[in-house]
Amino acid sequence: MICYAVIDTNILVSALLSKNESAATVQVMVQLISGRITPVYSNEIIAEYREVLSRKKFKFPTEQINYLLSAIEKFGILVTPTPTGIVLPDMKDLPFYEVVMEKRSDNAYLVTGNQKHFPKEPFIVTAREMIDILAQTPITDSLTGILEENHEE
C-alpha cells in the first residue's frame, strides 16, 4: 500500500539534525527514501525546504540538501493545490495544509512537529504517529499486490 505524505519542513530539519537513528523523524526519512512513504509536495514547499535547509545555522552540506530534495522530487508527487481559504495560526504553514487537502482522496497525511499550527484532524500527524501508521499498514508489492510478509523466495 502506498502511503502519501506531505512532510513539514520541521520534520526534515529534525531528522537531519538528529544523531539518533531510531528517532521518529529519522525513521520517517528512512521510510521516504525506501519508498514506503511517497512524498507529496508543491513548488512552494520545495522552495521552503531549500531556503530553510540552506540556512547557515544548520550547516547542512549542500550535497545532502540536494540529495534529499532530488529524492523528494524524483519519487514524490508534485501537486498544484487549490486554495482552501482556511486561516491558520501560522500562515507560512498554509502550503503544507493545501497540498495535503489536494491528496486527501488518496488518504494523504501531513507529518509535522507543529500540530498546534493546524486544525485538529486525524490525517495531521506527528512523525511518531506516522511510523505507527506504517507499522499497521501491510507492505505490498505494487506490481503484483502480493504481501511481502507472505512472499517466499
Overall description:
The protein has 153 residues and is α/β, with parallel strands linked by helices. 42% of the residues lie in helices and 11% in strands. The chain contains six helices and five strands, in the order E-H-H-E-H-H-E-H-E-E-H. It has a five-stranded parallel sheet with strand order 3-2-1-4-5, sandwiched between helices.
Question: DSSP helix count?
Answer: 6
Question: Per the principal axes of the C-alpha atoms, what is the gross shape?
Answer: globular
On the 0 to 100 scale, the average pLDDT is: 90
CATH architecture: 3-Layer(aba) Sandwich
Derived structural class: alpha/beta
Oligomer: single chain
Would you spell out the secondary-structure blueprint of this structure?
Elements: E1 3-7, H1 9-17, H2 24-34, E2 37-41, H3 43-53, H4 62-75, E3 77-78, H5 94-102, E4 109-111, E5 124-125, H6 127-136
Parallel strand pairs: 1-2, 1-4, 2-3, 4-5
Helix pairs in contact: 1-2, 2-6, 3-4
